[in-house]
Amino acid sequence: METLDYNQMLLVSLWQYNHHGDEELTPALFEETFGKVDGSHYYEKWTGYFNRNLWDIIAYFRSEKENGQKFCDMVARQVGLYQQNWS
Q1: Who's near 32: CB < 8 A, 6+ residues apart?
Q2: In this structure, are residues 42 and 34 in contact, taking their beta carbons and an 8 Å threshold?
Q3: pLDDT tens, position by position, 26-84
Q4: Helix (H, G, I), strand (E, B) or coil at 23
Q5: Where are the alpha helices (DSSP H) in 1-86?
Q6: Is the pTM of this model over 0.90?
Q7: Which residues does 5 contact at the CB level (< 8 Å), separation at least 6?
C-alpha cells in the first residue's frame, strides 16, 4: 500500500463533518453517477443502511470496484466543491 496523504484524508473528514447542502451527496448526484435505478439503490444504501458512513459504503463496493471508483470520484467532486467554497 502506498502512503495515505494526511491532508487529503483531513479534507475528506472535514467535508463529511461540515459540508452544506450544495456540497452533500444528493439523490440527483447518485442518479447522475450511477443511473436512475442503481443511483436510487445506492443512495438508499448510503443514507439508510450505512447512515452516510464513508468507510462502510466503500467496503460495500468491494466486489464492484468500478462502481466503488465512481463513488469515490463523486465524493472527490463534492469535497472539491467544499474546498472551493471554504478556502
Answers
A1: 39
A2: yes
A3: 999 999 999 999 999 999 999 999 999 999 999 999 999 999 999 999 999 999 999 99
A4: helix
A5: 6-18, 27-34, 36-44, 54-60, 65-86
A6: yes
A7: none
